[in-house]
Amino acid sequence: MENKFKKHIELNFAELTQHPLLIAVSGGVDSVVLLHLCHRIGLNVAVAHCNFHLRAEDSNLDQQFVEALSAQLKLPFFVKEFDTNRYASDNKVSIQVAAREQRYQWFEEILKQKKYKFLLTAHHLDDSMETFFINFSRGTGIEGLLGIPEKVDYIRRPLLVFTRQDIEEYANQNQLLWREDYTNAQTKYLRNKIRKNILPVFKEINSQIDQTFQQTIGFLKEAHQMSEDASQMMFEKVVLKQGDDLLFPLKELSELSLPKAYLYKWLEPYGFKAWNDIADLVTAETGKKILAEDYCLIKDRGYLLLRLKSKMVEESEDSFYLQENQTITQPIHLTATNYERNEIELTTDALCAYLDRDKLQFPLLIRKPKKGDYFVPFGMKGTKRISKYVKDEKMTQIEKENIWLLCSGDTIVWIIGSRMDERFKVRDTTINVLKIKLTV
């Protein structure tokens, strides 16, 4: 196993040979073998041990064992004691979640403070199979069936190609000592139940289940990558960016083979997890919204709008969008038509704006003015705040309340029905013209 491990590191984890590493060592056989292997092949490692105080005196004996092992190998040793039950109670999470959150928060602190590049954990192939069945039993997409990943951020798991049997045989052959966790034999936890009751049945059915599982995971990873590539290509084709917002055009979504699946895939990174809520929003009435931790997804006219919550607070007024060659009637009646420059004659009608189409970012945003807005009035060189323009034009209160702005990204293009922005006017060099007409 040592030779196989060394070749595995050289081929797939070469980065571990170039940096100082931190190994999470519980004292169990898996982490003891990982530590022993890393030390034998000459990796630059230190040891981190968490004492969660969940198994009375056994927890303290685990700590003493790992500390003694680190001293025997002459390796740096870090330990932290946690009040896991209190953390779970205060944060309203399970004991397992509490222990996981506490240990990884601490591991990150050590990595930053002591300049260790990677954290190594002793997850192995059986752990990955257990994770597969846990996710399968709860219901999952393809990502949940990929097992435990070998590399995520700063975490490396070099034992995932080895089985629990491989590890135990290595430990016995090298006369290694380790600590037994009696809770691993309890079947009240789902993982232990799968380990004790499910995996043995599969191994009885197929004695080569380990190899079969690895092969299947390989196929699933390839299928997943194909799915990721296709999703990204479709995202770039369909989804529109408007400043910090993302717009999902409902017409284009409806033409996809799996619109709800694509939409869920695109929104999941923003914290949206409720598949049914997302699906229902597509057919919901305008103005309906669903919330994630940092984002809001809103049903708009012809779009789903993804916006930061913080921006929703700043812009409490509704926003509307206008595409090329489109007519909208809400909040006002506008028609946008594309022309080549030599096809159209410009007029001075205040209800029409003639814009250099190639300077615009679509879809155009229609919104109410907000504090600090400014533009470059048509025919002028300098900027002017909208509030100052309104005052200079001696607009009535009713006229002020009826103002709508047409924007390209974050830039104001037209105070609709009043004054264009100089930067978007049609010039001699203009090739394409967008005419926008206001109907009153």
- What distance lies between the first and last C-alpha atoms, to the nearest angstrom? 81 Å
Shape: elongated
Largest sheet: 6 strands, mixed
Strand elements, count: 22
CATH superfamily of the largest domain: HUPs
Describe this structure in words.
With 440 residues, the protein is an alpha+beta fold. The mean pLDDT is 91. The protein is built from 15 helices and 22 strands. The protein starts with a helix and ends with a strand. It has three domains: 2-207, HUPs (Rossmann fold, 3-Layer(aba) Sandwich); 239-314, Uridine Diphospho-n-acetylenolpyruvylglucosamine Reductase, domain 3 (2-Layer Sandwich), CATH 3.30.465; 320-439, Phenylalanyl-tRNA Synthetase, Chain B, domain 3 (3-Layer(bba) Sandwich). The longest helix has 30 residues, at 209-238. 26% of the residues are buried. Helix 3 links the parallel strand 2 (45-51) and strand 3.
